[in-house]
Amino acid sequence: VAVLQNQGREMMIVTSGAVAFGKQRLRHEILLSQSVRQALHSGQNQLKDMSVPVLEARACAAAGQSGLMALYEAMFTQYSICTAQILVTNLDFHDEQKRRNLNSTLHELLRMNIVPIINTNDAVVPPPVPNSDLQGVISIKDNDSLSARLAVEMKADLLIALSDVQGLYDSPPGTDDAKLIDIFYPGDQQSITYGTKSRVGIGGMEAKVKAALWALQGGTSVVIANGTDPKVTGHVITDIVEGKKVGTFFSEVKPAGPTVEQQTEMARHAGRALASLLPEQRGEIICSLSELLTEKKDEILSANRKDMELATGRLSQPLINRLSLSTAKLNSLAIGLRQLAVSSGNSVGRVLRRTRVANNLELEQITVPIGVLLVIFESRPDCLPQVSALAIASGNALLLKGGKEASNTNKILHHLTQEALSIHGVADAIQLVSTREEVEDLCKLDKMIDLIIPRGSSELVRDIQRAAKGIPVLGHSEGVCHVYVDSEASIDKAIDVVKDSKCDYPAACNAMETLLIHRDLLRTPIFDQIIDMLRTEQVKIHAGPRFASYLTFSPSEVKSLRTEYGDLECCIEVVDSMQDAVDHIHKYGSSHTDVIVTENEETAEQFLQQVDSACVFSNASSRFADGYRFGLGAEVGISTARIHARGPVGLDGLLTTKWVLRGEGHTVADFSEQGSMKYLHENIPVPQGNFN
Question: Which terminal CB of the chain, N or C, has fewer other CB atoms within 10 Å?
Answer without folding.
Answer: C
